[in-house]
């Protein structure tokens, strides 16, 4: 096995169990590892410290274990079994009203570079590192064994998540099974999942608890769901008793799926209308008919260089909502950009509130749900930020 030697003193973050080795911390590599290959990481004085996947880039090694152990079938089985046990312990797996959850959340489950979402009988596997792509079949075999009787299909969806320079020739497709049944259930509501061509793994699983909270505030309100994607917040609002729900997304395909999801739960219900339109244009032209608005945009910043523009975007977006929302209205506003900190986001929203001159109170501060755990040694895993605001 190839060995990565660290520069003197560069093992300190690994001693604190941070799961990344940056390229600048490496003194030299013994051997010539291929991207995705398992390598051992040792200190300058040759002491073992970690084992993980090698990759070209700023994050050179993603740590799989701080114990010197083989990365074999037993390893994958053990890690996936621990992840599944945790989901059952928190009540999202094995729940008759909910068969949608994240089974593996990368570093949060000590499997950096791997995401697995479960939708009914289908698990969607996504690799965010070359190493997890290389080991996808081993992961799939262990997953099929750990979730025997629960998962019958495994769909691999990594065409857009792997480094394009790696030239891996990756293709999306079923590794196991091939069911066309794409209806799953979340908290008793049904929805179609587009794992073939949809964003992420086909649905935004991370908003489950926040959608349930929205349901509690929806009774007799006029609801606007911006960046609705496949309509998750919309059908929760309808079950909560909203008097009207308008869903807006720039993607006509997303709007089509939103309409199908609403029809699946509320056939023929006249309260819902969906619009395929740019969010800012819709906010500009809309009136003041809404007293509950959801702003859940895609990530405005995927890297630090885009942070300034992202914060301007959040300010502009929220300022429009504060300007138009009815007195006594409630605003659910989110950022899923990992490089935008909680403080960054709050400052952007507070600035927008001040610009509006409205009196605004925080009702809730939101984050990702428990099936998207944050490894205590890897705070970068906390990415979803949200505020629920009461606007006088």
Detailed description of the structure:
Helices cover 28% and strands 27% of the residues. The chain contains ten helices and 20 strands. The radius of gyration is 22 Å and the shape is globular. It has three domains: 3-65, PUA domain (Archaeosine Trna-guanine Transglycosylase, Chain: A, domain 4, Roll), CATH 2.30.130; 73-187, RNA methyltransferase domain (HRMD) like (Transcription Regulator spoIIAA, 2-Layer Sandwich), CATH 3.30.750; 204-391, Rossmann fold, CATH 3.40.50. The mean pLDDT is 94. Helix 2 packs across helix 4, helix 5 runs parallel beside helix 6 and helix 9 (307-324) runs parallel beside helix 10. A seven-stranded mixed sheet has the order 16-15-14-17-18-20-19, with helices on both faces. It has a six-stranded mixed sheet with strand order 2-6-5-4-1-3. Strands 7-8-9-10-11 form a five-stranded mixed sheet. It has helices at 12-15, 73-89, 130-134, 136-146, 208-217, 232-239, 252-265, 279-285, 307-324, 342-356; strands at residues 3-6, 20-22, 26-30, 38-42, 48-54, 59-65, 100-105, 114-119, 122-127, 153-156, 173-176, 183-186, 189-192, 222-226, 244-249, 272-276, 292-295, 329-335, 360-366, 385-391. The protein has 392 residues and is an alpha/beta fold.
């Amino acid at each position: 096995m190839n060995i990565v030697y660290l520069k003197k003193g560069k093992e300190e973050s690994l001693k604190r169990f941070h799961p990344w080795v940056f390229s600048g911390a490496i003194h030299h590599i013994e051997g010539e590892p291929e991207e995705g290959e398992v390598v051992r990481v040792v200190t300058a004085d040759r002491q073992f410290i970690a084992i993980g996947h090698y990759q070209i880039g700023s994050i050179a090694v993603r740590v799989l274990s701080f114990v010197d152990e083989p990365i074999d079938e037993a390893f994958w089985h053990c890690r996936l079994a621990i992840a599944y046990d945790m989901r059952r312990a928190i009540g999202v797996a094995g729940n008759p009203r909910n068969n949608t959850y994240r089974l593996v959340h990368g570093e949060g489950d000590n499997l950096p570079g791997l995401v697995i979402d479960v939708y009914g009988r289908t698990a969607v596997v996504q690799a965010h590192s070359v190493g997890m792509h290389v080991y996808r079949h081993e992961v799939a075999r262990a997953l099929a064994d750990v979730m025997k009787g629960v998962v019958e299909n495994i769909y691999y969806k990594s065409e857009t998540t792997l480094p394009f320079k790696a030239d891996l020739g990756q293709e999306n497709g079923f590794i196991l099974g091939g069911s066309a049944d794409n209806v799953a259930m979340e908290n008793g509501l049904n929805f179609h999942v587009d794992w073939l061509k949809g964003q992420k793994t086909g649905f935004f699983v991370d908003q489950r608890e926040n959608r349930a909270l929205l349901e509690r505030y929806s009774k007799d309100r006029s609801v606007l769901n911006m960046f609705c994607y496949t309509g998750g917040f919309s059908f929760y609002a309808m079950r909560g008793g909203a008097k009207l729900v308008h869903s807006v997304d720039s993607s006509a395909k997303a709007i089509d799926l939103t309409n199908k999801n609403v029809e699946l739960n509320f056939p023929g219900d006249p309260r819902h209308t969906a619009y395929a339109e740019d969010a800012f244009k819709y906010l500009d032209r809309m009136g003041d008919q809404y007293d509950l608005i959801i702003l859940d945009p895609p990530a405005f910043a995927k890297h630090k260089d885009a942070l300034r523009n992202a914060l301007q975007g959040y300010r502009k977006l929220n300022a429009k909502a504060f300007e138009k929302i009815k007195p006594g209205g409630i605003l659910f506003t989110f950022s899923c950009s990992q490089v935008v900190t909680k403080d960054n986001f709050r400052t952007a929203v507070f600035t927008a509130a001040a610009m509006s001159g409205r009196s605004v109170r925080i009702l809730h501060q939101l984050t990702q749900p428990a099936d998207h755990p944050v490894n205590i040694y890897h705070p970068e895993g906390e990415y979803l930020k949200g505020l629920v605001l009461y606007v006088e």
